[in-house]
Each structure stands twice: as structure tokens, then as C-alpha cells.
Design goal:
Helices cover about 50% and strands about 20% of the residues. The chain is an alpha/beta fold. It has four domains: about 50 residues; about 70 residues, no CATH class; about 120 residues, Rossmann fold (3-Layer(aba) Sandwich); about 60 residues, Nucleic acid-binding proteins (OB fold (Dihydrolipoamide Acetyltransferase, E2P), Beta Barrel). The C terminus is likely disordered.
Length: about 350
């Protein structure tokens, strides 16, 4: 920032010197008694005006400038075609000049607005052989659906640096989230509000950039179909918790990640005979059983553990039962944690 102001001060000095030089050359300034002061003032004012314009254009990107220029040229071309179409040949010159001015102003403005509202995909339709994307480092786009935003684990993965790239949230997904948050059903309303909170958390995070994508496909009625088409058009990886959407993406060769499947893959692998330390939190279904949980949420049923509910105990894995919800571990009680185990006394 300091370097920028140094450049601005040098520019002001050059403008002031330039104004003085012009005042000493032009004949209409030389005869004026205050020609030097007037020239320096005009030069300084001109330099300060350009710096003020520079401040107003802060945050105005080169892409926005090129888009406005393209839209302005396109609008002028349309206005010129209408002007030369012969529609106004019988109009008098004064009215013709007014109509011409209105045409160029109107279509120039419309062209600039449309260009500013467009995205890279729109430009690739107009100029099919030009892609506004760097070839050496393509963007890693992470496309999120409604279920994975509500789930919230995607935010933990991003904050832990497991995922890198630009997070893309389609406008139609945001609209669906808002509809769920405004639902009359209390459970749906809570899920929708949780999704909006997770989205705000992602936007506040400095780990990844979050972009709201305005692309839509009005001919598609289902959000899932829109997500598939958008993922294909952007070359993005789709993140979801929806089993059916995952399978459709797989059939259409769309890269995807199912967070549920990812969490199952990361669960602890246990073998019979291993020892665990855990806290028993409640009684089991059968008499005398106690139930505890591993850090990843795996349920451990401990025989003869009822008397130790609320305590930290050491158990030995006996068997594993695979269910639709995950794995249930059955174990036998060894001893309360802190007391010497058989292996320690040996």
C-alpha cells in the first residue's frame, strides 16, 4: 500500500511539472501574469482527479473491465445495425441525431450490464474456441449439494485442510436451503437453518473461497438433474450425502464424493482380541450389558458392564457385527481403567 502511494505522489509531481511546462509554452498562457501558478494548479488537479478515479475503481478487476468493453462494443454494433437499417431515413436530421444518440446509449448500457452479469461459460458460447481459464493450473471446483451442506462435516474437512479448491454453491441449492429453512415442519426448519449456518461458516473461513454460481437449467425440474449438468459443465467434483445422486453421478462419469461413504472408510478397524479403553454411558439391550462408544461413533456392547456404567473401563474385543448403520463391537470386560491389567502385571 505504501508503494502505491509513493507512485501516486510521483505521478502528482509529474502532472504538476507538466502543467508548469505547458503554461510556459502555450501562447495563451505565457501572457497571463499567473501562468506558472495556473499551469501547476491545473496539472495538480488533473493528477488528483485521476487518483480519485483510481480509488473509485478499487476492486474493479481486469475481467470486469474486459467484459464491459466487450458488452459496450456489442451494444454499439447492434445500435449501428438498427441505425443503418433504413427505419429512420424519412426522419429529419435533428430527430435522426436524437434517435441515434438514444440507440447508442441504450444498447451500450444493455450490452455492459449483460456482460457484467455473465460468467465464463457464457463467453465460451459466444467465442467457442476461447477458454478464459489458465491451462497450467486448472481450478479445483468443489460443487456442494443441499444434503452435504446441512450435514456440516464438509466444513470440518475444509478447516482441517483435507480439501482444497473453490467451493461452488449453486443459486438453486441456496434457494432450496431457504425453502427448507422456511418449512412449516419443525424438523425440516431446523435442518434448513443448520444448513444456512454451515454455509455462513464456510464463507467466513479463510481456507477456501466460496462462490455462489448463478447458472441454472430451467428445463430441468429436479435439483439433482441440475447438479449433474452443472458439475459436467464446470468440470467440478460433486459432494453429496444422497445415495441416489451418487449413483447417477457414477453412471454419468461425474466425479463425486459421498461423505457417508468417506466416513465409513475412515472408521477404526478392530480385530477380535484387541484391547480398548472407553467409557460406558448406558445399559445394553440384554441383561448385564453396558454400552460405550468409540471416538468415531462405533457402538461397543460390553458383557457384564452394567455395574460399571459411568466409569472408564478396559475391554477386549470378542466379535464384530456388520449392520446397515455400521459395525457393532461386542467385548468382554477386563478391568476398570487405572488398575493393572493382566498384560501389565505380567
Amino acid at each position: 500500500m505504501m508503494a502505491l502511494w509513493v507512485i501516486r505522489i510521483l505521478f502528482l509531481a509529474l502532472c504538476t511539472v507538466g502543467g508548469y511546462a505547458i503554461s510556459q509554452v502555450r501562447s495563451d498562457f505565457v501572457t497571463h501574469p499567473l501562468s506558472a501558478t495556473l499551469g501547476m494548479t491545473i496539472g495538480f488537479g488533473f493528477g488528483w482527479l485521476l487518483i480519485a478515479v483510481d480509488e473509485m475503481l478499487k476492486g474493479f478487476s481486469l475481467r470486469a473491465f474486459s467484459a464491459i468493453t466487450f458488452g459496450l462494443l456489442l451494444g454499439f454494433c447492434v445500435a449501428l445495425l438498427i441505425d443503418r437499417s433504413g427505419l429512420f431515413e424519412k426522419v429529419d436530421d435533428e430527430t435522426r441525431q436524437l434517435v441515434r444518440l438514444c440507440l447508442f446509449l441504450a444498447f451500450g448500457y444493455i450490452g455492459m450490464v449483460l456482460a457484467m452479469r455473465s460468467n465464463k461459460e457464457d463467453f465460451s458460447l459466444i467465442i467457442p474456441y476461447v477458454r478464459f481459464a489458465p491451462r497450467n493450473k486448472p481450478d479445483n471446483l468443489l460443487l456442494l449439494d443441499t444434503s452435504v451442506i446441512i450435514d456440516g462435516r464438509i466444513a470440518d474437512l475444509i478447516e482441517a485442510n483435507f480439501l482444497e479448491g473453490i467451493i461452488v454453491v449453486p443459486r438453486f441449492v441456496l434457494k432450496e436451503l431457504q425453502q427448507v429453512a422456511d418449512s412449516a415442519d419443525a424438523i425440516k426448519r431446523a435442518r434448513g437453518r443448520r444448513g444456512l449456518e454451515m454455509l455462513n461458516r464456510l464463507q467466513r473461513s479463510t481456507k477456501n473461497e466460496v462462490k455462489i454460481h448463478d447458472g441454472d437449467f430451467p428445463e430441468e425440474k429436479e435439483v439433482d438433474a441440475k447438479l449433474i449438468r452443472l458439475a459436467r459443465n464446470l468440470g467440478a467434483k460433486l459432494f453429496t450425502n444422497d445415495y441416489n445422486l451418487s449413483k447417477v453421478a457414477e453412471l454419468q462419469n461425474i466425479a463425486y464424493v459421498n461423505i457417508h461413504e468417506l466416513s465409513k472408510s475412515l472408521k477404526t478397524i478392530l480385530l477380535p482380541g484387541e484391547f480398548l479403553n472407553l467409557r460406558l454411558v448406558r445399559e445394553g439391550k440384554d441383561k448385564g450389558q453396558g454400552v460405550g462408544y468409540l471416538p468415531d461413533g462405533t457402538m461397543v456392547v460390553v458383557n457384564s458392564g452394567h455395574a460399571h456404567i459411568g466409569q472408564q473401563v478396559e475391554v477386549q474385543v470378542q466379535s464384530l457385527l456388520q449392520t446397515g448403520a455400521g459395525v457393532i463391537v461386542f467385548a468382554e470386560l477386563r478391568s476398570p481403567a487405572g488398575l493393572p491389567s493382566v498384560a501389565q502385571t505380567a
